[in-house]
Amino acid sequence: MTAMEQEIVPPETIPRTTSQAFSPLGCMLAASGMTLLVLTKLGAAMAVSVWAFSKLLGLPEWLMFALMALGIIPVIWATVWTAGRAWHVERRLAAHLDIDTPVFTVGHYFRKS
What we know:
Layout: H1 24-57, H2 61-94
């Protein structure tokens, strides 16, 4: 008998579907981990990009710091949006629902539904 001709043996017992590890604490840890990842990666990318741009053009340091202060705005927006989206996705997964299409507004995921 070849490997392709082997019989598929079903399990003796069917695993329970309600024994998943979703809990409010687990949802919070997953969402906060994703949020911190976005904050650190985007913040570092923004700082390095502004620093390299200012050194390339020979901008004074005060202008470089002003550009970094302006660069914080999109980083904060993306971090807040990611926090809401991650929490929303974790709650949907805990309720055994599919992931929906993202909505790219900051306040959408923080409204009571």
